[in-house]
Amino acid sequence: MEFDRYWFLTWTTYGTWLPGDPRGNVTTVKDRPGPRHRNNTPGTPVDGDMPGLRGWAAAHLKCPPVRLTVVQAKEIMSQFHETVCHRGWRLAAGAIMRTHIHVEVGVPGDPNPEDLLRDFKAYASRRLNKLWNRPAGDTWWTESGSKRKLKDEEAILTTARYIRDQEFPLVIWVHSDFADEIANPK
Q1: For residue 1, is pLDDT > 50?
Q2: Can you identify the CATH homologous superfamily of domain 5-13+65-183?
Q3: What's the CA gap between 33 and 24, in Å, rounded?
Q4: What is the pTM of this model?
Q5: For position 57, what pLDDT does the model report?
Q6: Stretch (H or E) spanning 79
Q7: CB proximity list for 62: less than 8 A, separation 6 or greater
């Protein structure tokens, strides 16, 4: 099957990357005259450290931050394989860490990337909810996530390599079609 687009999706577990985080964040801010806005244009800086906002967000969490286990990560990856088969997509690579997930997926046509992200998160949540109690906050994930369109073969291979090389992964998976390419770059 032909895949017209590849997307790099990333999302975090609930409570592990709060608004105001010093690693960078996208938040609705008022940092200039006029209405509040979001600094979420690709290629531009994101908002930096905002201790007051981070403290407020931490105080308003519904439950402790969610951290995945190895067993949960294996179940999630299994669900990702089922999801792509069901949807007619191609899982190019995936990495599941304790606090965040990376997925590289090829899709036919040009679906809305928010729909792709929603499906991965929803199916993974269903699997986790079936096998474990729901978190006290009733969600495993933060709201939304990063959706980056990969523009060419080089970007697809670079992303697969990035996913493969994650530090402290619970589970890593790379499609066999990419394994040789990223192990032996041209």
Answers
A1: no
A2: Transposase IS200-like (3.30.70.1290)
A3: 22
A4: 0.86
A5: 83
A6: helix 70-87
A7: 136, 137, 138
